Amino acid sequence: MAINLILLGLPGAGKGTQAQVIKDKYNIPHISTGDIFRAAIQNKTEMGLKAKKYIDDGQLVPDEVVCGIVKERLSKDDTKNGFMLDGFPRTLDQAKALEKMGPELNRSINVVININVKPDILVKRLSGRFICKTCGASYHKIYKRPKVAGTCDVCGGHEFFQREDDKPETVKKRLKVNKKMNAPLIDFYKQRHLLHDIDGHQFVSADKNIPAVAKDIDNVLDKL
């Protein structure tokens, strides 16, 4: 059976890392909303041109066009043996539209992976990043400290800063918005018995966390 997958998870939960692992192991395309939007606009597809008009006018792209771009992408031959959606659906209406287009394309969703990490842990993950002011090298207070405290490994600089997006209060607000947005989708797919919650905080060390989470995802996907 083809793996027609939706990947859910709050920012910092490790979606990007796990998406790459899934893509490599199961040889299915990773379909990111941002990527297919850019491609549709660049390739001047019917839906891409519609999206560009809204964007150029400074308006939000309506669900009808967003879903149309996703439908265009799922219609391609490389999705016949499975695919992974990341960043879509974002709303309940989009989820319902995807459910409707599935049988039309013979691409119905058969598994939804939700990488679950407690918000307080995500705040630590996301707000721990700091950057070298001289060369831009990125570090983390917990997971990637400079070899010598206060000294950049790359350029030897001693001045560091934290981006506004990475500050704890900003991170908390972003997580709150995303959690509210994801809740209806989680309920929607839970009701359809498609949702699988994966513990994204099986943390032993920075290098052992990724395989532990990936193994639990494999246990779900291998059953398909």
From TrEMBL:
<dbReference type="Pfam" id="PF00406">
    <property type="entry name" value="ADK"/>
</dbReference>
<dbReference type="Pfam" id="PF05191">
    <property type="entry name" value="ADK_lid"/>
</dbReference>
<feature type="binding site">
    <location>
        <position position="132"/>
    </location>
    <ligand>
        <name>Zn(2+)</name>
    </ligand>
</feature>
<feature type="binding site">
    <location>
        <position position="135"/>
    </location>
    <ligand>
        <name>Zn(2+)</name>
    </ligand>
</feature>
<feature type="binding site">
    <location>
        <position position="94"/>
    </location>
    <ligand>
        <name>AMP</name>
    </ligand>
</feature>
<keyword id="KW-0418">Kinase</keyword>
<feature type="binding site">
    <location>
        <begin position="87"/>
        <end position="90"/>
    </location>
    <ligand>
        <name>AMP</name>
    </ligand>
</feature>
<feature type="binding site">
    <location>
        <position position="129"/>
    </location>
    <ligand>
        <name>ATP</name>
    </ligand>
</feature>
<feature type="binding site">
    <location>
        <begin position="138"/>
        <end position="139"/>
    </location>
    <ligand>
        <name>ATP</name>
    </ligand>
</feature>
<feature type="binding site">
    <location>
        <position position="33"/>
    </location>
    <ligand>
        <name>AMP</name>
    </ligand>
</feature>
<feature type="binding site">
    <location>
        <position position="38"/>
    </location>
    <ligand>
        <name>AMP</name>
    </ligand>
</feature>
<comment type="pathway">
    <text>Purine metabolism; AMP biosynthesis via salvage pathway; AMP from ADP: step 1/1.</text>
</comment>
<keyword id="KW-0808">Transferase</keyword>
<dbReference type="GO" id="GO:0044209">
    <property type="term" value="P:AMP salvage"/>
</dbReference>
<keyword id="KW-0545">Nucleotide biosynthesis</keyword>
<feature type="binding site">
    <location>
        <begin position="59"/>
        <end position="61"/>
    </location>
    <ligand>
        <name>AMP</name>
    </ligand>
</feature>
<dbReference type="GO" id="GO:0004017">
    <property type="term" value="F:AMP kinase activity"/>
</dbReference>
<comment type="function">
    <text>Catalyzes the reversible transfer of the terminal phosphate group between ATP and AMP. Plays an important role in cellular energy homeostasis and in adenine nucleotide metabolism.</text>
</comment>
<protein>
    <recommendedName>
        <fullName>Adenylate kinase</fullName>
        <ecNumber>2.7.4.3</ecNumber>
    </recommendedName>
</protein>
<dbReference type="InterPro" id="IPR033690">
    <property type="entry name" value="Adenylat_kinase_CS"/>
</dbReference>
<feature type="domain" description="Adenylate kinase active site lid">
    <location>
        <begin position="129"/>
        <end position="165"/>
    </location>
</feature>
<feature type="binding site">
    <location>
        <position position="163"/>
    </location>
    <ligand>
        <name>AMP</name>
    </ligand>
</feature>
<feature type="binding site">
    <location>
        <begin position="12"/>
        <end position="17"/>
    </location>
    <ligand>
        <name>ATP</name>
    </ligand>
</feature>
<feature type="region of interest" description="NMP">
    <location>
        <begin position="32"/>
        <end position="61"/>
    </location>
</feature>
<dbReference type="InterPro" id="IPR027417">
    <property type="entry name" value="P-loop_NTPase"/>
</dbReference>
<feature type="binding site">
    <location>
        <position position="152"/>
    </location>
    <ligand>
        <name>Zn(2+)</name>
    </ligand>
</feature>
<dbReference type="GO" id="GO:0008270">
    <property type="term" value="F:zinc ion binding"/>
</dbReference>
<dbReference type="InterPro" id="IPR006259">
    <property type="entry name" value="Adenyl_kin_sub"/>
</dbReference>
<feature type="binding site">
    <location>
        <position position="155"/>
    </location>
    <ligand>
        <name>Zn(2+)</name>
    </ligand>
</feature>
<keyword id="KW-0963">Cytoplasm</keyword>
<keyword id="KW-0862">Zinc</keyword>
<dbReference type="InterPro" id="IPR007862">
    <property type="entry name" value="Adenylate_kinase_lid-dom"/>
</dbReference>
<feature type="binding site">
    <location>
        <position position="174"/>
    </location>
    <ligand>
        <name>AMP</name>
    </ligand>
</feature>
<comment type="subunit">
    <text>Monomer.</text>
</comment>
<dbReference type="InterPro" id="IPR000850">
    <property type="entry name" value="Adenylat/UMP-CMP_kin"/>
</dbReference>
<feature type="binding site">
    <location>
        <position position="208"/>
    </location>
    <ligand>
        <name>ATP</name>
    </ligand>
</feature>
<keyword id="KW-0067">ATP-binding</keyword>
<dbReference type="GO" id="GO:0005524">
    <property type="term" value="F:ATP binding"/>
</dbReference>
<dbReference type="GO" id="GO:0005737">
    <property type="term" value="C:cytoplasm"/>
</dbReference>
<comment type="similarity">
    <text>Belongs to the adenylate kinase family.</text>
</comment>
<keyword id="KW-0547">Nucleotide-binding</keyword>
<keyword id="KW-0479">Metal-binding</keyword>
